[in-house]
Design brief:
alpha/beta, 7-stranded antiparallel β-sheet, globular, 1149 residues, Alpha-Beta Plaits, 6-stranded mixed barrel, 7 domains, Elongation Factor Tu (Ef-tu), domain 3
């Protein structure tokens, strides 16, 4: 509301300062007082105090009288004149200013309908914003609204209820009443023809009990107080009255406070009731959400601890390296700082005069820090840490230029953004402002879900979806049931999908059905969100999806992907889709090829004229020569060929890049990079540069080649120095020349374009031009493919964290700068949900009106910060008894604490909460898919028996394909699907490698068998996977396979597009499948002590994943005798069962 819109009487006069030095400026006046001398007044503004007197003496008495009453006023200065006078405007109110604080005002359906007619607004947020702007006046940091109370309110309301008789005769030219009881469609008057006298009388009786009438710029409404279930009160708005020219009402009161408009529709009232119930539940120590709030508090506190451990470090740049890195020297580091910096991946260069407050104030909490930076944008530079030398206090940073600052801190920007997203989602759920306001009650164990209207029933499958999604085999009853439950859930549904049971297919069918049922008369853009914790999960989910002929656009990049020139897997898939689409367009419209060539040549020619180079000239001539002889003619083709030969000859005279540069750049010199494939790259360099290096350099590379310890090698600095020396040595000296556009080249291209035109087609053709423009735009600007697809896509895809980033807000049309802006989807579907921690899972869940979680809690566990979990267990399970000094247990045992920390939200909902809800309302919300299609039935039964039925017999699943589908004839297996490659203890025991472990004997056996099978005729068409629980073992296997064998076979693809070979840890294999899988068990009895320890093998969900990736054959590799013991049968019963399976129905090799 503006000052001029305030609907109260006013006094206006011109005043002039007594002191000419005091210039009166336009703006609000905070206070006015009478001065000592009559006729003089003191004006208080934000910046000055000025003594003034009216320019007209007749104004002295009116102003004095107003101030003498003690009534509240608002004042402002405006319209300054050349003589130094300024207009003083006062708005006059009845009585003193009221202190009201913030009033919560409920808006019901009738009020929303009334405002919709007045202001053509529909959404609650926009209606609330409209009413706020109409009724609230802001002065500096305070807000005010204007009202009648008590008898004055009653009189005002009765006066302004239109009389039926008067309304008919007068027509009400000056106002329009939009009633919550009978809103008018007439622009100029309230049409009460359909209202009875009895209804009007009831209205008046009702108004007599109301407490307030609020007046705004062009609107007024009544407020009635109502008690909420939590004992608090809310004021319900009614009788919205719109007035074109609001009268200045005498007797109006001013209140210091704010009006907060809330949803009090049927749904909104339910949300408020849910909020009150949720707040009550959260006070309980056993509250599920409260536990994870406490986890989040510790996680956030640890983030600040890590940042404080690094502190603010002064540095100087000691070298700018040619490989895009810089070296900085840190000053005066403490041992604590050195230890902390060893684990830092990114730093932030800070301004010299601005130290983060959490460093200067050690007692500051994470939430307090969040509040201080909520409206700040940092322009500080973030730099990736490549390596920290503890001995010299040197940091190697990824940077193309020297940073301007001299201090850095531990960068918490990325983790801070993640935490803020978690906190925002949690806030939406707690305040029932999530897309489904009952989400918090759905999650909490004792939440009572208020009854609501169930959604229209949808049949699970149609003939179209059956044909499109289930092409190869008909859906199982469980799959069809899962689709039906997901489509018809009123709030949330969970689908458990054991290995190979077709989770992705079920998701595709669900989204296809939702797309079929969507109302195509209005935009369905972005109706559904497809999400998952990791990019792989999201990309696997959407890879085979296409709706209305369009692929699903995925937003957000992998960490570090922006610096990588290679396309991501999703971008490659999207580009492949476009190429197929473009090819179809060309086949259907062959004439555009000629237009494309003309346009393409023009574009290349313009580029060449702007930046002439030999390479561009060569590309331009080669493009011209692609035209057929029928277009070019023999003479023009010969001239083009001669000019192209001349260009190539000049290119050959230029200095060539040394072939050794590739292997030199491949030398890994950071801790992270070296742990990935450092030894292999060192071996490549040693072989390629054997004739170029001295003995000391060869020795260093040989040492790097042999390094197998999990710890960071101590020679990385020397290795970097060697790489830098080689880069300088092998990089050719630059050749400086200025290339100009060649007239001959330009002339030839112009002739080529003329020949294309004369051949019958021109880019000036309207239809051709439009098609050509479309193809060229997308071909030359790959990012536009994503933009074009997103404009029409029914579903969007992003990881849990990136589902609310700025890019997603933009495509959803959300302004991130608007307070309380939120994202909403009709459905949110999250794959691999059992791997997502509750705090991250709630980010996409808060956006869905209906939520579908798909996953399997029997496979890999959720990803949480183990340091946080350890600290929370320590804090929660043991309390120090201050009186005795002894440890005493609280009401939750350590086992209980560990259980809820290790249990994903998916598992909690699936095994505890949803069964409870189903007993209450009878609505099925969870389903287990019961038929696998991935592997041999014998192996499917083994997985079901050991990893599902042992926990819950209802999770048992069968197989949907016959044994003949998984036939193979690999030598030595007799065509069996289960094999144990026995490597007895006498062949060698397990070896510790830092924090990891290896068993060389198993690595040798795997490599020998793998090479034999991959190179034999029977194995040439098969894919192979090698899984180990320890990274050191996977690296040893890669080394023993040899660089040449591993790199060539790993790069191979089968005709189906599958990888031929992958070697990795179990975590990198979830969601993947191979024809043959080797599982390296590594663990053996310790010969000296006789200790039998099974380590990671006891973690059943990891073992489940490792033993369910194969289709045709699973080969366990280890000491059979070690697992065929009482300890083995007790600790790892599934492995003992597999060994028995190999002996009875498989083969022991």
């Amino acid at each position: 509301m503006k000052f001029d819109d305030i609907p109260a009487p006013r006094l206006s006069l011109r005043v002039k300062p007594l002191n000419a030095a005091n210039t009166l400026r336009d703006g609000p006046v905070l206070s006015i007082k009478t001065a000592t001398l009559r006729g003089e007044f003191e004006l208080y503004t934000k910046t000055t105090v000025a003594t003034v007197m009216p320019t007209n003496s007749a104004d002295v008495n009116p102003l004095t009288d107003v101030l003498a009453t003690g009534c509240a006023i608002l004042a402002q200065l405006t319209n300054p004149a050349p003589d130094g006078s300024t207009e003083l405007q006062l708005v006059l109110f009845n009585g003193e200013q009221l202190e009201m604080g913030e009033l919560e005002i409920g808006i019901d359906e009738k009020v929303m309908q009334a405002v919709e007619k007045i202001a053509q607004l529909k959404s609650l947020d926009k209606i609330a914003q409209y009413l706020q702007e109409q009724c609230v006046f802001k002065l500096e940091e305070k807000t005010f609204f204007f009202m009648f109370a008590g008898e004055s309110a009653k009189a005002y309301l009765e006066k302004n209820i239109p009389d039926q008789k008067n309304n008919r005769s007068k027509g009400g030219d000056d106002e329009k009443t939009a009633s919550a009881d009978s809103a008018s469609d007439d622009e100029s008057s309230a049409n009460l023809d359909e209202e009875s006298e009895e209804a009007i009388a009831n209205d008046k009786a009702e108004y007599s009990n109301r407490h307030f009438a609020v007046l705004g710029a062009n609107i007024s409404f009544a407020l009635a107080e109502k008690e909420k279930t939590d004992g608090q009160t809310i004021f319900l708005a009614s009788r919205i009255r719109h007035v074109r020219n609001q009268q200045k009402e005498s007797g109006l009161r001013i209140a210091c406070g704010n009006l907060k408009f809330l949803d009090w529709t049927a749904a909104g009232e339910r949300a408020m009731l849910a909020k009150a119930q949720l707040e009550k539940l959260l006070k309980n120590d056993g509250s599920y959400l409260k536990k994870w709030d406490e986890f989040g508090n510790i996680e956030d506190a640890l983030l600040l601890e890590r940042a404080r451990a690094v502190g603010e470090v002064t540095f100087e740049v000691t070298s700018e390296n040619k490989d895009g890195t810089i070296t900085i020297q840190c000053d005066s580091l403490t041992p604590q700082q050195k230890e902390a910096l060893a684990n830092v991946s990114e730093i932030e260069i800070t301004d010299a005069d601005e130290t983060p407050e959490y460093l200067t104030n050690p007692s500051m909490t994470f939430n307090e820090y969040i509040d201080t930076i909520s409206n700040k944008n940092t322009n500080n530079v973030m730099l990736k840490v490549e390596y920290f030398n503890v001995a010299t206090s040197e940091l190697l940073l990824r940077s193309d230029s020297k940073p301007s600052g001299t201090k850095f801190i531990y960068s918490i920007v990325g983790e801070l953004a993640q935490s803020k997203r978690r906190m925002q989602a949690r806030k939406l759920i707690q305040t029932t402002r999530s897309a489904n306001p009952n989400l918090g009650l759905l999650i909490e164990e004792n939440g009572d879900i208020p009854p609501c209207q169930p959604p229209p029933k949808m049949k699970p499958l149609t003939a179209f979806v059956r044909k499109k999604v289930f092409r190869d085999s008909a859906p199982t009853m469980a799959q069809e049931r899962a689709i039906e439950v997901a489509l018809n859930t009123p709030d949330i549904a969970l689908i458990q999908g054991p290995p190979g049971t077709g989770k992705t297919t079920v998701i595709a069918a669900i989204v296809e059905r939702l797309n079929e049922e969507s109302d195509k008369r209005s935009s369905t853009r972005g109706s559904i969100l497809l999400s998952g914790f990791q990019h792989d999960a999201v990309e696997n989910m959407i890879r085979r999806m296409a709706f209305n002929g369009l692929p699903v656009p995925k937003y957000g990049q992998r960490s570090g992907e922006a610096q990588n020139a290679d396309l991501s897997r999703f971008e490659k898939d999207l580009q492949a889709w476009f190429e197929r689409w473009a090819e179809k367009l060309r086949v259907k419209n062959p004439q555009i090829n000629e237009s494309l060539e003309e346009k393409h040549l023009r574009g290349l020619c313009v580029q060449y004229l702007k930046t002439p180079t030999l390479t561009l000239a060569k590309n331009l001539l080669e493009a011209a020569l692609k035209r057929p002889d029928s277009t070019l003619g023999e003479d023009l083709r010969k001239r083009l060929q001669v000019e192209l030969k001349r260009i190539k000859s000049e290119q050959n005279d230029l200095p060539k890049a040394n072939p050794h540069l590739t292997v030199v750049r491949g030398i890994r010199v950071t801790t992270h990079g070296f742990s990935d494939d450092g030894p292999d790259r060192a071996a490549d360099a040693l072989f390629a540069l054997r004739d170029e290096l001295d003995e000391a350099d060869k020795s260093l590379l040989a040492q790097a080649q042999k390094w197998r310890d999990a710890e960071s090698p101590p020679f990385l600095k020397e290795l970097k120095a060697l790489r830098d020396k080689c880069l300088i040595h092998f990089t050719p000296a630059p050749m400086y020349r200025v290339e100009k556009a060649r007239d001959t080249v330009v002339e030839l291209i112009q002739k080529t374009i003329a020949r294309i035109r004369s051949h019958g087609f021109s880019a000036k053709d309207k239809k051709n031009a439009a098609l050509v423009e479309l193809l060229l735009e997308v071909e030359n600007n790959p990012s536009s493919i994503l933009e074009a697809v997103s404009d029409y896509s029914f579903a969007f895809a992003a990881t849990c964290q990136q589902s609310v980033n700025k890019l997603m807000q933009e495509v959803k049309g959300i302004n991130p700068n608007v307070a309380d802006a939120k994202m909403e989807y009709q459905f949110v579907i999250i794959d691999e949900a059992a791997r997502v921690s509750p705090r991250d899972l709630m980010i996409p869940m808060a956006q869905g009106k209906r939520i579908i979680l798909v996953g399997d809690h029997r496979q890999l566990p959720q990803l949480i910060d183990e340091e946080v979990a350890a600290r929370m267990e320590k804090e929660k399970t043991t309390i120090l008894d201050s009186s005795t000094g002894e440890n005493s247990q609280d009401d939750r045992t350590p086992i209980d604490e560990q259980d809820w920390l290790k249990k994903s939200m998916f598992e909690y909902l699936f095994t505890e909460r949803l069964p409870q809800l189903e007993q209450t309302d009878g609505i099925t919300r969870h389903v287990t898919l019961d038929k696998q299609y991935r592997m041999h039935p014998l192996l499917g039964d083994f997985i079901s028996r050991n990893f599902y039925e042992r926990f819950n017999h209802e999770e048992k699943f069968g197989s949907g394909r016959p044994e003949s589908d998984f036939a193979h004839n690999l030598p030595g297996t007799n065509g069996k699907c289960a094999a144990w490659l026995d490597v007895p203890l006498k062949s060698g025991q397990m070896v510790n490698q830092g924090t990891s472990k290896t068993r060389p004997a198993e690595a040798d056996a795997i490599c020998a068998q793998l090479k034999k099978w991959m190179t034999c005729e029977e194995g040439k068409g098969l894919s192979f996977g090698v899984i180990a629980f320890y990274k050191a073992q996977t690296e040893l296997i890669k080394q023993k396979l040899g660089n040449k064998f591993f790199e060539t076979t790993a790069c191979e693809r089968l005709p189906s597009g599958e990888e031929r070979l992958r070697v990795g840890t179990v975590d990198s294999f979830q969601g993947m499948e191979f024809d043959v899988v080797f599982l390296s068990l590594v663990r053996t009895e310790v010969i000296k002590t006789g200790v039998k320890s099974f380590g990671f093998l006891k973690v059943y969900n990891r073992l489940n994943v490792s033993m369910s990736r194969q289709k045709k054959l699973l080969v366990a590799v280890g000491d059979a005798a070690f697992y065929d013991t009482a300890a083995g049968r007790e600790e790892v019963p599934s492995l003992a069962d597999f060994l028995n399976l190999c002996r009875t129905k498989g083969v022991v090799m």
